[in-house]
Amino acid sequence: MGPETAFRLDGRTAIVTGAGSGIGRATATLFHEVGARVLFADIDEDAVRAAAQAVGADWAVCDIADEAQVAALYERAAGLLGPRLDVLANVAAYRRKADTMTMPASEWDAMHAVTARGTFLMMRGAIHVMREQPDGGAIVNVSSVSAVRPTIFSNMHYDSAKAGVDAMTRAAAIEFAPHRIRVNSVQPGGTASDGSARMKSELPPAGPMVQPGRMPLRRLSEPVEQARAILFLASPAAAYITGQHLAVDGGYLVS
Ligand SMILES: NC(=O)c1ccc[n+]([C@@H]2O[C@H](COP(=O)([O-])OP(=O)(O)OC[C@H]3O[C@@H](n4cnc5c(N)ncnc54)[C@H](O)[C@@H]3O)[C@@H](O)[C@H]2O)c1
Questions:
Q1: Residues in the ligand 1 pocket, defined by CB under 6 Å
Q2: pLDDT by residue (tens digit) across 126-162?
Q3: Contacts 24+ apart (CB under 8 A), 174-179
Q4: Distant-in-sequence, close-in-space partners of 154: CB < 8 Å, separation ≥ 6
Q5: Do 183 and 139 touch, CB atoms closer than 8 A?
Q6: What distance in angstroms lies between residue 179's CA and the mean position of ligand 1's atoms?
Q7: Which domains are assigned to the chain?
Q8: What's the CA-to-centroid distance between 178 and ligand 1, angstroms?
Q9: How many CB atoms lie within 10 A of CB 186?
Q10: What is the pLDDT of residues 53-97, one digit of tens each?
Q11: How far apart are CA 146 and CA 148, in angstroms?
């Protein structure tokens, strides 16, 4: 396979969660552009419809925290895309800051219900399909640099859930390697998405990653820069890569 095909997804099928906004939308759109048949999935119906219709792709509404809705999503995917599933990009997450000393346990649980349990439920649904395929499949989870190094304060529940995403990535990579299923994660650094803009208006963004100027590359990333890394890990170009975490962070983790 030459480089002109190794980085593409021609003829492959893919589900992208969080596809209504930011990195998820950029990822689903890029997958479509490089030849995949993509199901855009998100909890926000208006957003996911608009994102999918912009490129003429299929879309579905799903709360990834809800087991029954995830099962229904996979049924819908089979109906729309056919019995094969080649790629799952798990981009959706719960993103709301909460003060460490006063956050109610319900906020902690809401974070983990979406970001940890939702990622797990989506992975398990994909593996059910992929392990029946002789050539397996590829799963890319989106975690965060904050799984490794704190970024902003009032985000401890998020850091915990994202560390869980990376732990699940490693565990699934080992457990399902015999089925030729590769599982990796992308760890974005600060990215200029709608979600980030919303979070800025919540609690004060104190913490080590306060300003774009603190990044070695002196700027935030664009969602499409995260999408390109997700595409790489999902594509045949990454055929021998599994269980890895790729920081796309302008140098934050090594600074
Ligand atoms: N933007 C950043 O700076 C940054 C940094 C590190 C990691 N990340 C991660 O990248 C991913 C995308 O972030 P973004 O900035 O593009 O976010 P965003 O808020 O712009 O988009 C997130 C999307 O996920 C959807 N979503 C939320 N809860 C859901 C649920 N329960 N079920 C289905 N969909 C749901 C939302 O409706 C939204 O469309 C997230 O996993 C986030 O944690 C982002």
A1: 17-18, 20-24, 42-44, 47, 62-65, 91-95, 114, 118, 142, 144, 188, 190-191, 193-196, 223
A2: 999 999 999 999 999 999 999 999 988 899 999 999 9
A3: 174/243, 176/127, 176/130, 176/131, 176/136, 177/242, 179/127, 179/130, 179/131, 179/136
A4: 97, 98, 99, 100, 202, 203, 206
A5: yes
A6: 29
A7: 3-254 (3.40.50.720)
A8: 31
A9: 29
A10: 999 999 999 999 999 999 999 999 999 999 999 999 999 999 999
A11: 5
pLDDT in tens, 168-180: 999 999 999 999 9
Closest CA to 212 of 189, 194, 181: 189
Rounded CA-CA distance 234/72 in Å is 24
* Minimum CA distance residue for ligand 1 atom 13: 23
pLDDT of residue 204: 72
- Percent of the chain, pLDDT > 90? 88
- What are the tokens at 147? 């799984």
Instruction: Please provide the distance, in angstroms rounded to a whole number, between the alpha carbons at the two ends of the chain.
Output: 37
Q: Position of tokens 């995260």?
A: 226
Q: Which of 17, 27, 43, 224, when mutated, tests ligand 1's pocket best, judged by the most ligand atoms within 8 Å of its CB?
A: 43
Q: How far apart are CA 85 and CA 254, in angstroms?
A: 36
* Amino acid at the residue 163: A
Is residue 158 among the annotated active site residues? yes
Residue 178 DSSP label: G
Average pLDDT over residues 99-122: 98
CA distance 65 to 199: 21
If you measure from the C-alpha of residue 33 to the centroid of ligand 1, how many angstroms do you get, rounded to a whole number? 21
